[in-house]
Design goal:
rod-shaped; single chain
């Protein structure tokens, strides 16, 4: 049948894998097969063309260009945290002072939010962290259980393969022993038949000589 695989090796039973030259011979066979195999069809033809720029943002593109150009990274801007006064030429400008006030109010609100977050973390952070650790622990336990199950299945498969191959090897050994015995018996039978044929031929020759002798004696008398 097409695609049928015939297994002609029993690794758990066969001997001689460690003999000198066996590994080199196997590698030579693999290399020969690799040289003869030249795929002519792209096995990824059914997939769409890969798009490597779909998830790139402008910031990512700019950062990649900076890295490619070997330019230093820009320092973190602290301007948003400063409270500058209006420039010297706008000290009497109400709009400039209003902008400074808006900036100070925004920073004050930012600091208030930071304080609020610190208070929330102080009150609920420990419990949230313990809950998060509990979730991680459960995930680790599940992963370890899954890993143990996989290892157990792998071990069972290996034991099953070893048992099946050992049984098959013993059967092959018995069949080989039986074959050797049958071949030996056939050889003995053929040799016995040859000896019998030789004896029959010799006896026929003796009978023929006796017949010729009697005929010769009768002719003389």
């Amino acid at each position: 049948m097409a695609g049928e695989v015939v297994v002609d090796a029993l690794p758990y039973f066969d001997q001689g894998y460690d003999d000198p030259g066996v590994k080199e011979a196997a590698i030579a066979l693999v290399e020969e097969e690799t040289r003869r195999y030249r795929p002519t069809k792209n096995y990824l033809d059914y997939l769409p063309n890969a798009s490597y720029h779909t998830f790139e943002t402008e910031i990512m593109k700019g950062e990649m260009e900076r890295v490619q150009a070997r330019l230093p990274m820009d320092m973190m801007s602290m301007k948003r945290y400063e409270l500058p006064t209006p420039p010297a030429g706008k000290m009497t400008d109400v709009a400039a002072w209003q902008e400074c006030v808006d900036n100070s109010q925004a920073q004050l609100e930012h600091q208030s939010l930071r304080i609020l977050n610190l208070e929330l973390m102080s009150e609920y952070g420990a419990a949230s962290w313990r809950s998060y650790n509990s979730v991680l622990t459960n995930m680790i336990d599940q992963a370890q259980k899954h890993l143990q199950d996989l290892r157990k299945k792998i071990q069972e498969i290996n034991w099953q393969r070893k048992t099946e191959q050992t049984q098959a090897g013993e059967k092959l050994r018995d069949l080989e022993t039986s074959w050797v015995g049958l071949v030996s018996k056939n050889y003995e039978i053929e040799r016995a038949c040859a000896e019998i044929e030789k004896e029959i031929s010799e006896e026929e020759q003796k009978q023929a000589r006796r017949g010729r002798k009697r005929q010769h004696e009768s002719e003389e008398s």
